[in-house]
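Order emerges. As here.
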Amino acid sequence: MAIQIVMDRTGDSRHPFNPDHAKELAKAEQRFYELTKAGFTAAVRTGPSQTSQIRSFDPTAEETLFFPRVVGGESDFLPCSACDSGRRAAAPS
């Protein structure tokens, strides 16, 4: 039994599948390409606490991890051209 683990801000969701069943394998492959197209990074476990990034579906992988794209938050610093070297913007009123 293989598994795809999708990490997100709420934790993770796990999607086990049997690679010997064509229907389950096709669904896992579809999930792989949908997630990577949406910006997730896919990786397979290569050893204890070790992973290796993959860019195409590997039907022989026992465990595939999907990490969401890291997105920076809004900054409360004004652009340098608009202020004196990184002065904080005034709090919204």
Q: What stands out?
A: Residues 80 and 86 are 6 Å apart (CA to CA). Residues 74-93 have pLDDT under 50 and may be disordered. Residues 22-37 form the longest helix (16 residues). The radius of gyration is 20 Å.
